[in-house]
Amino acid sequence: MKKKLLLVLAIILCIIGAVFYIYDYSSDEATQKGGDLYKTVMKRGYLIVGVKTDSKPFGFIDTGGVNAGFDVDLAHRIAKELFHDPAKVKFVAVSDSERMYILNLNKVDMVIATMTITPARQNFADFSNAYYITGQSLLVRTGSTIRSLADLSDKNVGVIFGSTAEQTIKFLLPSAHVMGYKTYDEAYTALKSGKILGITSDDAILRNYSMKDGSVKLLPKKYSRDSYGVAFRRGSESSYMIDVVNNVISDMDNQGEFIKLRRKWQLD
Prior knowledge:
Elements: H1 2-27, H2 37-44, E1 47-51, E2 54-55, E3 59-61, E4 67-68, H3 70-83, E5 89-93, H4 99-104, E6 110-111, E7 125-127, E8 132-134, E9 136-141, E10 156-160, H5 164-172, E11 177-181, H6 184-193, E12 199-202, H7 203-212, E13 216-218, E14 226-228, E15 231-233, H8 239-254, H9 257-264
Parallel strand pairs: 1-5, 1-6, 10-11
Antiparallel strand pairs: 2-3, 3-4, 7-15, 8-14, 9-12, 9-13
């Protein structure tokens, strides 16, 4: 009798779990597919934005435990445009390798996470107009004999999984031994320990490490010219929201807000 009772309880728990699973992916307003993004967001009353938490000064967790950075400020500005309240935004942590996946699982409304606009990515996502121009550079240890990308031939160089730098280094220097890392801090630790002789990534992110640590330096040459954009799911569902975000970007540019943000985050 006791075994039968336990079996019944187990079945009930499985049914309840299945109901919650179905609700999470099918019924929740934030995860439904096919509906107009702008209407969904306005009905919900707040934005859900994917941002980085390890890419200072664009996206990181500050000493108070909250999201901060250039990309985070842009998200707040979009929320202000939509709701007249910059606080009406929920942040979801994303990494380079996972941000497109999370976007297309409908876990976020948009991704603002130092995402370079590339033809390959435009096959899987729609983008806003560019809001920041950067270029890939090389971070090395101070005193290193590495003076350029060419000096890394047959040597270990670090990249972040899923970044455009991963493809660029393989194209420009196929003889390099490319070591992939999930986060910038992991790559930075590998550089400091000597496991790799350089990190190649966006100069705007790598500069932060050279500013806070004199034992590493950022080489001046850039190997690309890249544009960051806000990423959306592909299709007509995102069209109106993209127009809204493009208007925000245009207004911020015309009113000097991006200049102020670059100064705030020491990007000039």
